[in-house]
Task: structure prediction
Amino acid sequence: MIGPFLRRDGEGAKIAGPALGLIETSSIARGMVVTDAMVKKAPVTLVLARTISPGKFIILVSGEVAEVEEAMLIGVATAEQTLVDRLQLSQVAPELIGALDRHVEYPTDAVGIVETFSVASSLLAADAACKAANVQLCELRLGDGLGGKAYFVLAGTQADVEAALFAAETVIPAGLLLARELIARPHDDLLAKI
Result:
């Protein structure tokens, strides 16, 4: 299966950028109201608006920095007490945009895995990791089929993967990092199955 937004055959997301905004709500109904408010307020591209387990709703928009900022302001205000998490990235790392769109092959020197309790914290960490070191963002899974959690897999030289993992860990808000792992020289069988 491919794509970060798993739904049967996998699903990617076309993101033009350069900015990205994401809101997670605990209410599906309120999530739909938030989506409507965001796209009415600013000329952003609605990349994704749908439910994820366990009964949350995510809204992902992209566009110019000012427009995404405007959409996020109204989205957060409209979400009110249902707001679970939010993320706004002004200059998204190109590797993150690529990973949101497709599945990437793994280089075999070292692999790093970061698992978080929210979609927004995982996107934030993946962006920081890709900007901090020369790594490839090989896989990104966000919410669906994960109980609302998210994870990503990085690959590169061991030193670069370690630096990227450190950068990712430092930007994740307190309490949202579930796991951070490094696998040196991963076996080909593992790479074929993840």
The chain has a mean pLDDT of 85. The first helix runs from residue 28 to 41. The helical segments are 28-41, 65-79, 94-101, 119-132, 158-171, 188-193. The chain has two domains: 19-89, 94-193.
